[in-house]
Amino acid sequence: MTRPGVHLPPTPDRRKPSSPAPRTAPAAEHSVINPPAPQAPPPPTVTHSRRGVSRPRYWLAGSSLLAGLLLMVDVNPSAPDASQTLTCQSEVQAEAALSRETLAELIAIPERQPKAAVNQVVGQPYCSLSPMEVRAGVQAERVVYPLNFETDAWVVLLYEGEEYAGYDFKFPNR
Fold first, then answer.
1. Distance of alpha carbon 150 from alpha carbon 154, whole angstroms
2. What is the DSSP letter of 133?
3. At residue 71, what are phi and psi to the nearest 5 degrees?
4. 167 near 103, Cβ under 8 Å?
5. Is the CB of residue 142 less than 8 Å from the CB of residue 131?
6. How far is residue 102's CA from residue 97's CA, in Å, rounded to a whole number?
7. Which residues, 6 or more positions from 22, have their beta carbon under 8 angstroms from its beta carbon?
8. Buried b (16+ CB within 10 A) or exposed e, 20-41
9. Whole-model pTM?
10. pLDDT tens across 109-167, in order?
């Protein structure tokens, strides 16, 4: 049942032959004068689950942070650089070694003390290493002492002129 002037597209007939035809509403039931009744909005969906949308963001942030850290790490730590090589430039004093007590005294000495004051605490060095330039234009003398309580550790003392400039630990076999 259609009104004159209103053309509806044909629909396939899927009804059983014995069922009555369904009632259809007239096509012009809603007009400018008679708008459709407002419908309630659908209920909001709650997505407060930690397994929701935010997980990919955490994964991306964590992956980016890990990649950045890996770029800063030395990928070949076994290759020694020039500052880690302990090649003696002077005669070796085999009996020279630092005990725990002597090392504790050395660490307590502030920088820029006279070289003679440091030598009173540590004694003769095992040997001297090649000098190096720590600051622009200043040659630094380096001497090395093995530790008698740790066979794989050495202490390298740095002197600038006649002043003590600090120490560093070297682990040549690690």
1. 8
2. E
3. -70, -25
4. no
5. yes
6. 9
7. 15
8. eeeeeeeeeeeeeeeeeeeeee
9. 0.51
10. 999 999 999 999 999 999 988 888 877 788 889 999 999 988 888 999 999 989 999 99
